[in-house]
Amino acid sequence: VEQLENMHYIVDTIHEEQFTPDIPIPDIVLHIARSVRAKEILKQWETAGCRVLNSVESIHGVEREALAMQCAKWGIPTPTTWIIPTTFPVAGVAETTEKALVPIPFPCWMKRTGTCAQQPDDVCFVPDAETYHHSLARFRARDIYKVVVMEHLEGTAIKFYGVQGTNFFYSLPACQLGYDKWTACTIDTGVSYPAPETYTNILFHIRKLIEQGSKGIPVIYGGDAIIGHDGIARLIDLNDWPSFSRCRPEAASAIAGIIEGRVSEFDVKHQN
Q1: In the chain, which ranges are continuous DSSP H helix?
Q2: Omega within 30 of 0 (cis) for the link into 201
Q3: What pLDDT tens digit does each residue of the chain (272 aa) get?
């Protein structure tokens, strides 16, 4: 907001709870809305010609079940992944997102479908079959009928942040943020992993694959990857509009830049 106001744009801010259909439609919306009601209004605004970042379509595109299927389609490396009904009785052989019949291994991770994580139990580490069974039951009791199950990989967890159409892309080891849940559950195998200075080069390939998703991927995005001893970055999660906790000034500048570019495109179209 500060960046855009310094560029002499008129910027109004509103809390999601006060967001209603009778608000005059602006030229551009930047939002982090999550409620169904807010997304319905934003979709109506998109239809009316408002430029919405991130688009409602791209938000749905990174919900866990959709993302797992899209990664298989786009060829984005991920841990082996299954979409499992919570009525599935025990861990066994099941079809992966790559259409292969593979036994679900332990340890693994279980994640809710339908939306991003909203409470700690929405993503859980599953070390054995007993925990797997209890985790499915807990999700089912919350009326969550499908989960994403992902194999656990040894490696270094990386956080990354990007803004499509700009040079901005920032990454760092998740342990530097103090909440590296994935790596905290690793086993010391004595295997060495890529040095921190190589992360950017390793992630360049996965960034390229992510951004090829076009409309299915948010313009403003962030995510998590695991880098194994083989040097391959495998995507764990992808989110619309992350916190940018370590790089907010740089991210704000990049986001303001794409707004300026889209305003210019809008003006040229109307001049023509």
Answers
A1: 2-6, 36-47, 56-61, 64-74, 129-141, 181-184, 199-211, 248-271
A2: no
A3: 999 999 999 999 999 989 999 999 999 999 999 889 999 999 999 999 999 999 999 999 999 999 999 898 888 999 999 999 998 766 788 999 999 999 999 999 999 987 655 666 899 999 999 999 999 999 999 999 999 999 999 888 889 999 998 999 998 888 777 666 666 666 566 655 566 566 777 888 888 888 886 667 899 999 999 988 888 899 999 999 999 989 999 999 999 999 988 776 545 343 33
CA 214 to chain centre: 14
Q: Could you give the C-alpha distances from 119 to 29, 87, 91, 209, in angstroms and in order?
A: 27, 22, 24, 29
Q: How far apart are CA 76 and CA 122, in angstroms?
A: 23
Q: CA–CA distance from 220 to each of 7, 32, 36, 135, 159 (Å)?
A: 20, 10, 20, 32, 14
Tokens of residue 138, six digits: 């807990």
Q: Which amino acid is it at 114?
A: G
Label the pairing between strands 51-53 and 28-30: parallel
The Cα 90–Cα 136 span in angstroms is: 9
Count CB neighbours of 20 within 10 A. 10
